[in-house]
# Entry
Amino acid sequence: MIAREQTAVRNVGLLLMLRGLLAVGGVVVAAVVPRLMGPTGYGQVALLVTLSFWFTLAASLGFTQVMGRHVPGFGQSSDEDGLRSFFGGLLAIRIVAGLLVAALYLVVTITWLRDLDWVAMAVLAGAVFVRAPAGLCFSLHLGLNQAARWGVADILRQWGTLAFMLPGYLMGGLRGAALGVLLGELVVLLVGKIGARSYLKWAAFRIDWHGLWPYLRFGLIFYVSDLVLSGFERSGEAMVRALCGDYAQVGFFGVAYSAFLTGAVGLPQIALAFAPLLTVLRLEGDQAALRLWIERLLKWLALGSVVVVLAAVLVGKDLVPLVLGSAYRPVAANLIPLAIGLVALSLTSVANLSALTHDRPSVALAAAVLRLVTFWVLGLSFVGRWGSWGASLAVLGALVAQAGFFTWRMRRVVGYSLRRWVAVVGLGAMFLPLTLLRSSPAIDAALFATFVVCYGGLLLLLGWVTPDELGVMWRAVMGARSPALGTSGDQSS
# Structure
């Protein structure tokens, strides 16, 4: 690999490790925080904090995509002064947007939630404001081909929940929890500012609307797409409650969907980490290498998704009551269609990456709208019949519809092949009959282990994953120098 490819793969490997830590932290937070806060206290805190993140999204303005797409161009031309001016202008806009959205959050929550402490709402409004510049400082690293640093913000924020919010609640109730959230966000901002200090220049801290408008227009379309997808992600529980009227079904869907989001957030994030590399390849006109990396990414995302599907099918019924309790057994059935949805999401993640690097934000927006509309059309039919499982099926249908449309449109632009994706998914599907042998938890675990060994062995035997490829990826992740991985020596992609 050349240096930039090695850097991209190493950062994705580190990003995967961070996602693993995030998953572990999620289990710890879920096991500790709700128990110590109690149902009422946790419900109040969760509502206010969730609302604060919704308003934070409103201040994002699509700048993460702008960073991933346009910052590599400054590096390609070695224009550090231009990058500082670019970053300073976006940071100024983000701070103004954060201030306005924080004020809006305070007005909405005080008006709507009059039974809660307004001081806590004011403190959380401060957290909304702080997240605006902090998020941009970390997004800068995405454009600099340092995706691992970009992913650090999630880890800091999650563990800040345990370090600051929980003790704050135990000492000061809702007001203390809000103060803990603000302290955690200030830590995130401090770390982000330190990481971006080389690009912070006060002279560039001004809003040049004329110079920034092309970038803002590009980001705003992705921004609207993010808002639409947020509506999809947050409306499932409301649909189940409205059509079913059973809070137990709402809970079953909510728990399953939270588990699904661990992968659903990770796949697009891993794909987006390749944005700087693909942007540079496009600027150089190296279409062959660009398609090679897209197809390689498709293959690996599909492989990971297939393993998750077989895990849900073979050991889901055993793990759910073990982790959540016997009352949550229906969650295992919900996990299966949601896990299958990750296979479709692997296509969507790569199509979204292609839309970003090839300046097709309108296609991303159309795909997001299709996903939301399909979910509601199917949900209105399925939820009334099958409750939370029907909602999970509606999610699957929406993901498949989005993946089909998005992939069709972006393959017309980029021309990448789906041959290896189909092969990897098809090979995994061949192991589904193992479900007929399910019995005790020990046997189910053995069946899953058998699938992993046989699936990996067949991938190696068929040459779809090669030892050389694994070695190169491993050395890149560990930071060692790697031999070239060219198109002729890597037909597995």
About this structure: The radius of gyration is 23 Å. Residues 221-488 form one domain.
